[in-house]
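Bumping with the actual sequence this time:
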Amino acid sequence: MSTSEERLARVGLALTVGPCTPDAYRAIRAAGPVAAWHGYTARHPAPDPADALRIAQEAGWRPICPGDDEWPTGLSGLDVDGELRAGAVLALWARGPAHLATVTAPGAVAVVGSRVASGYGLHVAGELGGGLADRGRTVIAAAAHGIDTAALTAAARVAPAVVVLASTDELHRHRALLDTVGERGVVVTASVPGQPLSRRRLAARHRLIAGLASGVVLVETARGGKSLAATSAATALGRPVMVVPGPVTSGVSGGCHELLRTNKTARLVTCVEHICTELDTAPTPASVTAPSPGPRPLAPPGDRESPRR
């Protein structure tokens, strides 16, 4: 289990530099979260992480850190050097009766797609969500209208599901969905409760969804749709990417068709049986050992240079 000092350090880093940036990743990997936090506070004013921890717990959120028995094993794939090094999760916050590590054990499936979905897309998402839950597969999706909500709502009627928030600012926007999932599933976020919604936190949510799941199913999205970020993260992690086709005349399926054309590892699926087969036959991604880069002093988000590509 993580120590209380490490827990406070991770909360502090999440408050100040979260979602994890390349500089934060390097500092934590080189010296550990406690030393990284002390290095940050020696150079910059910082909030008290104990206050944030207390306020969150009073609101019903439980912190989950690496080393805790509820920490999902799949997130270790985000803590690697390279394309996803900025995706490493500092800490998680959860509400709901389900044990996060148990429900995200190998076999869990992310079902994602367009917020402005067609009737076809909503029907397919509901069929897949309910069918996967019937097969004992945990369904993971974002707190978002459209495909994600359809899949989660159907799944939560059958079994515990996992809904991922970019920020607790989204609580009031999706109250009915969160209440449904929260009855026996779990609501989770990588942002400290109370932090505002931002583009960086929305991007981090896509990586978190891919990290929690054993594979990602894209039901419907237009070209350039935001849900494609989850499939990109899954591809980088070496996890199955499955795509539901739509009518070739449908703009809201254009992103699905383009992904099938350009991503050589993406597989076309049309039913629950296809998804289960892909997950059961997928090779285990090779483990990646990151080098230990030298630490750089951490700075607040406004002071950081853009990461080089």
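The tokens above came from a reply further down the thread. Residues 4-94 form one domain.
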